[in-house]
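To the wet lab folks,

You asked to see what we're planning to order before we commit. Fair enough. Below is the target structure as tokens, and below that is the sequence we designed to fit it. If anything looks off to you, flag it before the synthesis order goes out.
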């Protein structure tokens, strides 16, 4: 294949010169880098090279590096140091992956979707209710690397909780993987509970008499329920693999904890699955109520048209100005016609009111 023409500048001797490109340093995307030995964090500030050298010299402990939306150039150094597979690294950089669990030699690569339910005052112009992010975890024998995408996918609380429990953290990288999975599934529970509360409010409005129905809001909820379903449902199989013992790098002590996370996810999946069916029912009920309201409005309009058309018809008859109309030249003709109009309107009004048209 012929090479592409160079886009570089040319120096004075005519040779192509590659333009200087400023790369963002790795430190810009590193949120935290720590070394843990026997479940306790070693003091000091570490680079990833220093951290892995310390762990491998000791022959115990592990490194936990947290990255936030790194570029390919930023993560390449870490990938080379820890021997990460290039396909997994590409997924971690570009994101937009389904929840999954893959094994590359002695390294596990797990993708999780993070979700956050936005309060009314925080919703964007597009009125999104659920904001999603992505969280990738590389777990090896002596390292954990987390790559986050999105604003609401922080792991500071997870790291703090694990550091407060050295006995759990001493189980190694798989304990960190469990802590992250447990944290993500717990946020699923919080989101589904908030989502359920909003659905209950909408359901009360739909079935309450004489309430204004916001049909677009129901369609929005249905769309966001599908977004939540795409984040939750695919995580079932990865957690099953971690809980059922198919992966030798996950010890039995940690595997039992993954079973608990799997149970929580099953509860979330069941609840999320019911959202779609419930919202479909609410959409049908809303359409039926809107149709009924339109029919009621049409009956009211028809009743008033009938009442107004009666005096209009009488006035039209006597407005033809024919000479051979007895009431035209009668002294009491005008007041009598007005009285007939009034009585006709009153009688029609009571008839429509009795039949609940008004």
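Sequence we intend to order:
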């Amino acid at each position: 294949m012929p090479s592409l023409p160079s886009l570089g500048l040319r120096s004075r001797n005519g040779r192509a010169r590659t333009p200087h490109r400023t790369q963002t340093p790795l430190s810009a995307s590193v949120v935290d880098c720590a070394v843990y030995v026997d479940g306790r964090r070693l003091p000091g500030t570490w680079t990833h090279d220093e951290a892995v050298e310390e762990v491998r010299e000791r022959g115990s402990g592990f490194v936990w590096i947290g990255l936030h939306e790194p570029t390919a150039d930023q993560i390449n150094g870490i990938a080379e140091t820890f021997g990460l597979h290039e396909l997994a690294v590409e997924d971690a950089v570009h994101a937009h992956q389904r929840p999954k669990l893959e094994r590359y030699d002695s390294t596990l690569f797990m993708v999780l979707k993070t979700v956050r339910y936005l309060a009314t005052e925080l919703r964007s112009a597009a009125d999104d209710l659920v904001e999603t992010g992505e969280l990738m975890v590389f777990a090896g024998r002596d390292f954990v690397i987390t790559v986050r995408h999105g604003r609401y996918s922080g792991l500071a609380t997870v790291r703090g909780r694990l550091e407060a429990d050295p006995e759990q953290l001493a189980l190694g990288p798989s304990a960190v993987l469990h802590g992250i999975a447990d944290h993500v599934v717990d946020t699923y529970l919080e989101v589904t509970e908030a989502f359920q509360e909003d659905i209950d409010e909408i359901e009360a409005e739909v079935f309450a008499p004489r309430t204004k129905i916001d049909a677009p809001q129901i369609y929005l909820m249905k769309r966001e329920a599908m977004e939540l379903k795409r984040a939750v449902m695919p995580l079932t199989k990865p957690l099953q693999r971690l809980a059922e013992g198919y992966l030798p790098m996950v010890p039995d002590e940690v595997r039992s904890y993954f079973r608990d996370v799997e149970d929580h996810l099953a509860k979330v999946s069941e609840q999320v699955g019911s959202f779609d069916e419930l919202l479909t029912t609410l959409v049908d009920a809303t359409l039926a109520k809107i149709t009924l309201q339109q029919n009621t409005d049409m009956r009211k309009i028809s009743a008033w048209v009938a009442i107004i058309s009666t005096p209009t018809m009488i006035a039209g008859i006597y407005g033809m100005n024919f000479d051979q109309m007895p009431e035209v030249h009668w002294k009491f003709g005008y007041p009598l016609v007005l009285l007939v109009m009034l009585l006709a309107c009153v009688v029609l009004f009571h008839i429509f009111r009795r039949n609940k048209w008004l």
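Structural context that might help your review: The first helix runs from residue 48 to 58. Strands lie at 9-10, 16-17, 30-37, 40-41, 62-68, 100-104, 107-117, 130-139, 143-149.

Thanks,
Computational group
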